[in-house]
Amino acid sequence: MTGQTLEVSADEGCLQAGIGAGNALRPLGPENANFCVGDEVTFDVVSPSVIARTCRAEIIRVVPEDEVAGLPNRVRP
After folding, report:
1. Smaller CB count within 10 Å for the chain: N or C?
2. pLDDT at residue 49 above 80?
3. 11 in Cβ contact with 27 (< 8 Å)
4. Strand intervals (E) in 2-70
């Protein structure tokens, strides 16, 4: 899913901390694994305003480009 926008489900505290932060998804399996809808992943949140955290997350869907374009600039990838 390289270059696509993914929607993830995770602990609310982790997702809220991730707004405006640097986020990264890592596979739970082999380091170079591809992401698929339904996969569990590691969601890393790094921000100068909150303590860095790592959460478990699940990939829910690939967000269509038209939906991404309709998002406010502050939350658009």
Report:
1. C
2. no
3. no
4. 5-10, 22-27, 40-47, 50-63
In terms of Cα–Cα distance, which of 75, 68, 72 is closest to 4?
A: 68
Q: H/E element holding 28?
A: none
Q: What percent of the chain is modeled with pLDDT above 90?
A: 26
- Cβ atoms < 10 Å from Cβ of 28: 11
CA 47, 53, 76, 16 dihedral sign is: negative
Q: Strand, coil or helix: what is 2?
A: coil
Q: Which two tokens stand for residue 42?
A: 């590691």
Q: Which two tokens stand for residue 35?
A: 């992401």
Q: What is the pTM of this model?
A: 0.73
Which helix (DSSP H) or strand (DSSP E) does residue 31 occupy? none
Q: Which residue has the tokens 């932060």?
A: 21
Contact 73, 20 (CB under 8 A): no
